[in-house]
């Protein structure tokens, strides 16, 4: 077996320079996806059928197409229709493309989050004469957000990996740089292994952060943590 | 004048006639037990008294607000609900709020009190029913009995003219029932008007002034609770009460 350890380690040290581009893309695409996702969710839950129809169409459209096709449509296709878009930076096109795509997944996740808040609490709120808006902001939204958090995190993990597709728009990010290194050195295995491991590390760190956040946010709702401690009775 | 006047009230859901021509008067300061077999329309009647269910025909007066079927707008609903509060079978506490907030926040949300007053009121009520130790806990960390008592406190806090209880102990483990019944009995002593749907016949006989028996969406009979719930006045009620006893021993 000829595995070039030295080259592998060199790649592992050299490649992280491109992690910021990857992260920036993922984070901004996620922000965009959340904003659009919320809007589509509002449409889905709206009493107006035309908005619900639109939301349905939007979700189906962006889920039904390969991400790569969407990126090409935006980066290469749109400037043909709208010349003013000629020359948009590849990173913007990637952020927009990935953001649109993931928003379709997020809106389904958010909707499920809202539906998981039981009708009984809403009835209780109505019976107490609490207005719909207040009920939404103070009762439904906080619970829906918490319910949607794990799945939203998973979406970010997919998004982080999908940013590797941006190299097809000529953008040099983590994967793009790896591809170039591999092409120059012909050390494909070592390079791509290093690239893969770096994505893996990013995702491990992110998953860990998210679990910390979830634990913190869920603390008050968990029975075991809140059971009054009876081991030390009050001194009397 | 009675606190609550229900006149010829009917409720259809879809094509199904759930309540048929209900007539009922309830006096201020009394406890009314609403009994009847499962599916007879007890929950629907309570929900209609709160306009969580909109009636199809007839009228309904609670306090100074009258709702006439076909002419019920959001103002009527709002005004009528100011007079009543509801305690649900499944507690329906707000899961993201502590016990104290569950009782205090509705007062804040509906501008009945500012934060300081609301917390003071809530604390007072929760103390009175022995829940002082759990005020900072969230519903998920409370026992069913504690949750139901918090929900009773939540109903009391808005100072309603009537509290509607829908089988408040049915979802509880047997050993937790007593504490909730005691809390309700405490309210009865303070002459708070209550309508109580329950299968706890002994309890109903003890605290209720009036009883109403419904079956198939109709009021089959009504009268003084001790008499009516003894089962001696009607064979139908007698067999119903016996069926409850049998299921309790099953
Ligand atoms: N939302 C609804 N849609 C259709 N039928 C309903 C609905 N709510 C209640 N019902 C029907 O109305 C009848 C009375 O129900 P309910 O008031 O819950 O009875 P109870 O509380 O006495 O058990 C039942 O037959 C039930 O199936
Ligand atoms: Mg019922």
What is the topology?
The complex is a heterodimer of chains A (236) and B (250).
Chain A: H1 5-14, H2 19-45, H3 49-63, H4 67-81, H5 90-115, H6 119-127, H7 132-162, H8 174-185, H9 188-218, H10 223-226
Helix pairs in contact in A: 1-9, 2-3, 2-5, 3-5, 4-5, 5-7, 6-7, 7-9, 8-9
Chain B: E1 4-13, E2 16-26, E3 31-35, H1 42-49, E4 57-62, E5 65-68, H2 74-81, E6 84-87, H3 99-109, H4 115-128, H5 144-157, E7 162-166, H6 174-189, E8 194-197, H7 201-207, E9 210-215, E10 218-224, H8 225-228, H9 235-249
Parallel strand pairs in B: 3-8, 3-9, 6-7, 7-8
Antiparallel strand pairs in B: 1-2, 1-4, 4-5, 9-10
Structural class of chain A: mainly alpha
Oligomer: heterodimer
CATH topology (fold) name of the largest domain in chain B: Rossmann fold
Task: Show unreliable segments of chain B.
Answer: none
Bulk shape of chain B: globular
Helical content class of chain A: over 70%
- Low-confidence segments of chain A: 225-236
Distance between the termini of chain B: 44 Å
Please state the second-level CATH architecture of chain A.
Answer: Orthogonal Bundle
Strand order of the largest sheet of chain B: 6-7-8-3-9-10
Helical segment count of chain B: 9
The number of domains of chain A: 1
**Ligands (ions, cofactors included):** adenosine-5'-diphosphate, magnesium ion
> How many domains of chain B, as an integer?
2
Q: Shape of chain A from CA axes?
A: flat
Tally of strands of chain A: 0
Compressed to H and E, one letter per element, the order of chain B equals: EEEHEEHEHHHEHEHEEHH
Radius of gyration of chain A: 23 Å
Main location (chain A): membrane
Subcellular location (chain A): Cell membrane
Membrane topology (chain A): Multi-pass membrane protein
Protein name (chain A): ABC transporter, permease protein
């Amino acid at each position: 077996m000829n595995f070039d350890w030295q080259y592998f380690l060199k790649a592992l040290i050299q490649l992280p320079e491109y992690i910021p581009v990857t992260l920036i893309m993922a984070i901004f695409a996620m922000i965009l996806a959340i904003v659009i996702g919320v809007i589509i969710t509002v449409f889905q839950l709206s009493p107006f059928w035309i908005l619900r129809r639109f939301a349905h169409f939007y979700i189906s459209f962006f889920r039904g197409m390969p991400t790569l096709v969407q990126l090409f449509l935006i980066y290469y296709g749109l400037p043909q229709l709208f010349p003013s878009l000629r020359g948009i930076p590849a990173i913007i096109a990637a952020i927009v493309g990935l953001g649109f795509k993931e928003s379709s997944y997020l809106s389904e996740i958010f909707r499920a989050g809202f539906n998981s808040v039981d009708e009984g609490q809403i009835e209780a709120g109505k019976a107490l004469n609490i207005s719909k808006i207040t009920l939404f902001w103070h009762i439904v939204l906080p619970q829906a957000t918490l319910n949607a958090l794990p799945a939203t995190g998973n979406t970010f993990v997919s998004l982080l990996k999908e940013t590797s597709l941006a190299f097809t728009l000529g953008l040099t990010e983590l994967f793009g740089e790896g591809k170039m290194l591999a092409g120059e050195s012909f050390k494909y295995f070592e390079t791509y292994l290093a690239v893969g491991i770096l994505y893996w590390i990013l995702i491990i760190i992110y998953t860990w952060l998210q679990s910390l956040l979830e634990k913190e946010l869920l603390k008050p709702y968990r029975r075991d943590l809140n059971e009054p401690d009876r081991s030390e009775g009050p001194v009397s | 004048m009675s606190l609550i006047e229900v006149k010829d009230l009917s409720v259809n859901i879809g094509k199904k006639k759930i309540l048929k021509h209900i007539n009922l008067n309830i006096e201020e300061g009394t406890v009314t037990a609403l009994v009847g077999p499962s599916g007879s329309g007890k929950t629907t009647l309570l929900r209609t008294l709160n306009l969580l269910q909109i009636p199809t025909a007839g009228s309904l007066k609670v306090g100074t607000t009258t709702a006439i079927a076909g002419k019920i707008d959001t103002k009527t609903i709002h005004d009528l609900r100011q007079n009543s509060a509801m305690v649900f079978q499944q507690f329906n506490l707000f899961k993201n709020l502590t016990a104290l907030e569950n009782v205090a926040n509705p007062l804040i949300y509906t501008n009945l009190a500012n934060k300081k007053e609301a917390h003071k009121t809530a604390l007072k009520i929760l103390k009175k029913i022995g829940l002082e130790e759990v005020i900072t806990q969230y519903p998920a960390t409370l026992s069913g009995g504690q949750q139901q008592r918090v929900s009773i406190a939540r109903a009391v806090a808005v100072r309603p003219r009537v509290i509607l209880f829908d089988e408040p102990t049915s979802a509880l483990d047997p050993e937790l029932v007593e504490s909730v019944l005691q809390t309700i009995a405490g309210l009865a002593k303070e002459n708070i008007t209550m309508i109580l749907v329950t299968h706890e016949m002994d309890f109903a006989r003890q605290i209720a002034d009036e009883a109403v028996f419904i079956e198939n969406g109709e009021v089959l009979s009504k009268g003084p609770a001790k008499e009516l719930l003894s089962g001696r006045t009607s064979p139908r009620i007698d067999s119903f009460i016996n069926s409850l006893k049998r299921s309790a021993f099953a």
